[in-house]
Amino acid sequence: MPETGLHAMMQKDTGMIQSAGAKGSPALAQNVVTPSATKAFDAGASRAPIQIWTGKALREQIHSKSLENAYRQWLYHRATRQPRLRDMFLKESSSFDDTLLNLKVGDQHIVVSQSDSYIREVGRDMRGALSSELKFATANSMRDIFDDCLARKAPVYARYISSLSEHNTYWEVLVLPLAADERSEPIFTMCYMAMLSEKVDVLQILYDRSPIGIVAAVPIMDGHNKTDDARILTMNNKARQILKQEGTGLPVHTVGDMIHYLHHGLKWSAIGTVSQDRQVTQIDYHDPDNQRFSMMIELINQFVLISLAERDQPEADARATNRFARLLGLE
User: Fold this and answer.
1) Which residue range(s) make up the domain with 166?
2) Same-domain status, 51 and 136
């Protein structure tokens, strides 16, 4: 693949293009150039907003259980040989509902199968169509992904907003390269799709991968409403990382436990407290290595919502919990 292919795209967290092959780094497929040096790139063709992950980061990003099962099945066969098309049609694959199967013919991809459920979801039967005949933004972007998937003989995971829907329908798709037999090169791309709920699924993804630690607790309704007694309901991955609660930390069950653990377990020292109003309190800390942290405690609709951030994060990000609270309808 030439350096102008998917591997050469660059995207920073600010929205610029990153390498689609980099671990954990998404790429915007509307800016993807064709991975094939022999195929002319239609610069005027529209592209859909697509995020792409490859490599080891792929498994961490998959949300749907059915996509995860398909990926595991592909990996099982890949351990000993090139996975074949028939490997994905075993009995245990019956849970894969929304699928699309393509066959590479020359520089084209032809849709040879599309599940009934996926036809209903997108409102379009694409069976028998060549990739060059599918003149809509999502198809233009996916065509580049299919080429890259076959060229590298490796899966690609993507999330995209369908250009066939007027309602900004958000999908996740796992694209697997498959061969006719174990001795041949992969010529099929099998796509497993799942629709992401516009609120619950998307927020779960944002919550799990937020750069801000988020802790939610439920206060005891005994008339005192003491924050210290609030029982911790959930904390995201970043909060567990900051609090060193990834299997080695002390038990933390209440907000009071957490505050005690900051002082006596992690040896954090408070360097300032700001009470903005009766609902919001901010406490700044530093740890024994002088790393600074900011903790925001807010009472929102009978939830205690706590955000934890390294002080090198932008100030606006320190109140990231507010954005989640609004989206969840807590405010």
Assistant:
1) 6-196
2) yes
Domain boundary among 196, 215, 245: 196
Tokens of 303: 């939830």
Q: CATH number of the domain that 313 lies in?
A: 3.30.450
Distance of CA 165 to the CA centre of its chain: 21
The residue written with tokens 């099982």 in the block is 76
21 in Cβ contact with 6 (< 8 Å): yes
Q: What angle, rounded to 10 degrees, do the helices at 320-328 and 200-209 form?
A: 160
Residue 210 lies in a domain: yes
Secondary structure (DSSP) of 167-205: S--EEEEEEEEEBSSTTS---EEEEEEEEEPTTHHHHHH
Does residue 233 fall inside a structural domain? yes
Among 185, 169, 180, 75, smallest CA distance to 124 is for 169
Using CA atoms, how far apart are residues 82 and 181, in angstroms rounded to an integer? 8
- Among 190, 197, 163, smallest CA distance to 174 is for 190
* Same-domain status, 121 and 170: yes
- Asked whether residue 109 is domain-assigned, the answer is yes
Q: What is the pLDDT of residues 197-233, one digit of tens each?
A: 766 666 777 788 788 999 988 776 555 557 777 888 7
Nearest to 16 by CA among 30, 34, 33, 4: 30
Secondary structure of residue 254 in the 3-state scheme:
strand
The two structure tokens encoding residue 179: 């061969």
Read off the pLDDT of residues 99-150 as tens digits, 9 standing for 90 and up: 999 999 999 999 999 999 888 888 889 999 999 898 887 888 889 999 999 9
Q: Is the pLDDT reported for residue 24 higher than 70?
A: no
Residue 1 lies in a domain: no
Among residues 155, 161, 194, 162, the alpha carbon closest in space to that of 65 is found at: 194
| Same domain as 94, residue 219 | no
Q: Beta strand pairing status for 269-277 and 213-218?
A: unpaired
Q: Residue 184 maps to which CATH number? A: 3.30.450.20
Q: Which of 154, 170, 196 is the last residue of a domain?
A: 196
d(CA 273, CA 172): 43
